[in-house]
Amino acid sequence: xxLIGVGNVAKLYSHQKILDMISKRLVNHHWFHYAIFFLxxxxxxxxxxxxxxxxxxxxxxDLTDQQLEQLVNRAAEAGFSEEELLQxxxxxxxxxSEVDKLKERLDGLVIMxxxxxxxxxxxxxxxxxxxxxxxxxxxxxxxxxxxxDKLSSDKQPYFGMDLFYNKTRRLTFEPNLNLATPxxxxxxxxxxxxxxxxxQSETYYQTSVTPEGQIILENIGPISVSGLTIExxxxxxxxxxxxxxxxxxxxxxxxxxxxxxxxxxxxKVNLVGxxxxxxxxTLSAFSNVFNALYAAGGPNTNxxxxxxKLIRNQQEIAEIDLYAFLxxxxxxxxxxxxxxxxxxxxxxxxxxxxxGEVKRPKVFEVKENETFADVLEFAGGFTDKAFKEKxxxxxxxxxxxxxxxxxxxxxSMFLMKGGDHYTVGEILDRYTNRVQVKGAVYRPGNYAFExxxxxxxxxxxxxxxxGEAFTNxxxxxxxxxxxxxxLIQVDLDAIMKGSATDVxxxxxxxxxxxxxxxxxxxxxxxxxxxxxxxxxxxxxxxxTPADLILMAGGLKESASKEDVEIARRKxxxxxxxxxDIIPVALDNDLGLSSNPQVLLPYDHLTVxxxxxxxxxxxxKIEGQVKSPGNFxxxxxxxxxxxxxxxxGGLTEFAYPKGATLIRRTEFYKNQSEKARNKDNLLNLLQRxxxxxxxxxxxxxxxxxxxxxxxxxxxxxxxxxxxxSVVEAxxxxxxxxxxxxxxxxxxxxxxxxxxxxDLVSIINNPGSKYDLIxxxxxxxxxxxxxxxxxxxxxxxxxTTIRHxxxxxxxxxxxKAGGFNVRAKRKRTYVVYANGEVAxxxxxxxxxxxxxxxxxxxxxxxxxxxxxxIRPSDLVGITTGLATIAFLITQIIN
Length: 892
Hints:
Shape: extended
Helix content: 10-25%
Number of helices: 22
Distance between the termini: 92 Å
Radius of gyration: 52 Å
Strand content: 15-25%
Strand order of the largest sheet: 7-6-10-8-9
Structural class: alpha+beta
């Protein structure tokens, strides 16, 4: 059983002063009133889920006395009576049998502490009067009004029904107990009275009115105060205490007396009639009619909101119209309750409904002689779109329904009748004086129609025509009386020049002035090849190839000015020719030419690459050479021997038999020239920054140019490559790496190791062993190796020192020999340079490969054995027997 709730309460209220105060203020039989509620709080932690909708599963027998006592100490601050807490618990589904068990167990507990009136020797310790709403104290752990949730919904069609009950309500009507003590408050049994004497004499009394209507003061005796107001009780108590405190007497007293209320008493109020939860409710003495209605959930769907009756001493003392509070916010309709008051909610009088364009379309209760104007006020008035001249009404007669119209001047005279249904319509969705202008004008939109409006005047209102306006044919869409349309074509150019008569405009005309760009396809030109920013550009008249190249950022270093051409679209009736190819000769400086080639729309300019142009290609040599590092390939057929020579040759510690060449595969992502150029420019900017010198004017301009260029470049290493090439390579990657029919995907490698014979290369430069270098090659020459590694299915895979003239069986024995599942005939050796040699079989003999320093011996494993099932064995035997029988028959 979890004690989370008890732990939190104990932390908050463990302070000794608070515990002392609570123990002093506990009354003999009132202490368990407060415990019930906090018991529910703890139960919500112990036995219920976080979202507590039903607490009927609580078992009081599972609680210990220590837990109940801790709850009692906390409950003294709640301010709820026994009846209030029991009613709230039952509303939330706690069975009556469990409530009785709680009461019995709490009655049997012995609570430490007793209550006595305090005298002057004790310091006054008064806390504010408290009465918290149940849902506020539980902090959402117990959902309020569970039964009421079943009776109503958030969207209540009856006006005012959600005043006292709503699932998301925040209005509680709880009385404010922390007000100054009302002088006209009538004392009764259960009220806590605080008597403060100060001045020449000082003392403090804190006592409660007994069921007999008296307060008992220490060393003074009982004083009858029940039925007296605070002001009258002050006079009675002053007269009684003046015998003991003579300073209270006379015209110039030196001792003074003040009486205030502590925790107030509770009263019982009966709610009957058409309420959601009729019954007797225990409320604070400050409660009013709204508090009582709130506790009962308010009137139900048949209850009246207009004539709630308050009955006291068998007499009706007030009839409350709740609409007065809802509509006008009049608090005067509320009245303070007294003990044994009766609140009667009779059935509703008559109801009418409003729908349509009103602010509160609901069902309203009406009294006799109320008019439509009154109901319209209840509904908050018309909305902005309402048709206010007439309202339709459907009225129930003695035999059938009747339809009528209520006009604006009849609103204040048209009397309501139960069952009326009023419909407020919406204004028509049309314009009385609108014309529209669209297209190539400066201010298209709606304009007000007026008599004598012509097309030219309307164009003036729209701030005139734009430069691209096509004025030879302007369309006017006109709406006829039967709502069909007619299209009128107008030569606006002739009207503007005065050679044609102006056209009159009618209401709802739509004038469309087309643009010349709406009547033709957008034009452009393209440039590709060796320019900085290839792509599509806007076409302009008299544009030349040099202009387009400048717009594309200029030529690359690799561009060939002698190999430039224009591909121009060609219309061939036979369909054999697609384009005219026009060669272009560019000036070295792209300057102006006396007779330039002019581009036409949709031309495609191509700038080709210089013959055999390429950036430097780098290779790398590492390991046991005298000058390792990066080297540029000097010629197309440079070989490994040349790289060895340029690096100074091998060192004395080199092991040439173990040399390897690492080469890029076709899947390697090469860096484009554009990306490489970007890296070079970034390095240049970084070097300038590291120098920490004030740049010259030319350097500043260069830095700005580089910055602008880099800002417009793509960050991808693929930039500068043909997109079709990139897409083709991606498809190749996807096709090869995807798994098919459950087979594992192939692991693609960007580099691979090539076994080379460096000894033969050095001894025979230019021979077949001496490979031609490619960009990105890495030649690795290791140090002298002295070990042999064993892997695979041997007893103890390990690394062993190499011994000259020792064969493979020697190293297998050093590793403990072959394992049981070893595939001996498939044993192979991987040499240091990447070459592989396998075991060869000659009849019953195995020829093992030679072992060199740095070798790796790998012993594969046999596949798993699949046992033959009896059914398979029977099948095989039967098959063999059938074959033997057939052979015998054939022979016979």
